[in-house]
Design a protein that fits this description.
This protein is α/β, with parallel strands linked by helices. It is built from twelve helices and eight strands. The radius of gyration is 17 Å and the shape is globular.
Length: about 290
């Protein structure tokens, strides 16, 4: 598959209905590089779960995409293991994301991170919409508010990943893995200096909505694999409703609704349909 096809998919990463600044954070060619790096994954740790301070629970954006990516990697013959913290564990359980590891790492807890990595021996780590510490050592939301009390320091796994390949998806610059976009976050995102993460990934991907970014990565893997690996509309809808039933809220509105960063389920399914059509067209050689 030529690079033009992946650049077409990158256009979906630029869709930024909430005006979060994705156009400034997306790197041309980054999607293809991430997909090619992830294609041969043998054992992948999938990290997700972002707390909403106003509600004291996890948000809807992220877990569904992690499950979709996990399904895709499993279809490609790899093993996956989902990782989150106690706050967001009920959300992953609602999605039947298994096996699930629930960790309570703290900042600076290198020994715990290394022990877990030694036990699980991942070839790849992927974070989707997971907090990454900022320059002052605190985890912060898009308003610049500290969310340390609700957040386990799972970014320690990225800091001590060793030879494991790391991929990360975020939509604001405060997410684990996006440190390479710090300059752009500071310049173009509200509270950028305060919230920009300092923890990076080998292959960072920015998107207007992290969930959508996860689907775009699955679409890119589909092109490389030669078959559609995207989740069905029914799976996406049922999982989003399951997340809300388990206590998740929209990360923008803090409301218990089946929405993603303020975007309706219908809007998300429309984008997924466009992605599926693009993959089908590219695979057919049109």
């Amino acid at each position: 598959m030529d690079s033009e096809a992946f650049l077409e998919l990158e256009g979906f990463l630029l869709r930024d209905p909430g005006g979060r600044g994705a156009a400034h954070l997306v790197r041309s060619g980054g999607l293809e590089a991430a997909a090619r790096a992830l294609l041969p994954a043998r054992r992948t740790l999938l990290l997700t779960g972002f707390p909403v301070l106003r509600a004291g629970v996890g948000e809807t954006d992220g877990p569904g995409a992690a499950r979709a990516l996990g399904d895709a990697l499993t279809q490609l013959g790899g093993e996956v293991r989902y990782v989150t913290d106690p706050l967001c564990a009920p959300l992953l359980r609602a999605l039947e994301a298994e096996p699930l590891e629930v960790l309570e790492l703290v900042v600076g807890e290198a020994a715990g991170a290394r022990a877990f990595l030694s036990r699980t021996a991942p070839s790849h780590l992927v974070a989707i919409e997971r907090p990454g510490r900022s320059s002052d050592g605190h985890f912060r939301n898009m308003r610049g508010e500290a969310i340390d009390d609700l957040t386990a320091a799972l970014d320690e796994l990225f800091l001590h990943a060793g030879d494991a390949v790391s991929v990360a998806i975020g939509d604001g610059g405060n997410e684990l893995g996006l440190s390479g976009a710090r300059e752009q976050v500071v310049a173009h995102v509200a509270h950028g200096e305060r919230i920009a993460t300092v923890v990076g990934a080998d292959f960072p991907l920015a998107a207007g909505v992290s969930e959508w970014g996860g689907w775009v990565l699955v679409a890119a893997l589909s092109l490389l694999a030669g078959r559609d690996l995207l989740p069905t509309d029914e799976a996406v809808a049922s999982r989003l409703h399951a997340l809300v039933a388990a206590g998740a809220v929209d990360g923008v509105t803090a409301a218990p609704t089946p929405t993603l960063d303020g975007q309706s389920l219908e809007a998300s399914l429309a984008l997924l349909g466009e992605l599926r059509a693009t993959v089908a067209r590219r695979l057919s050689g049109e």
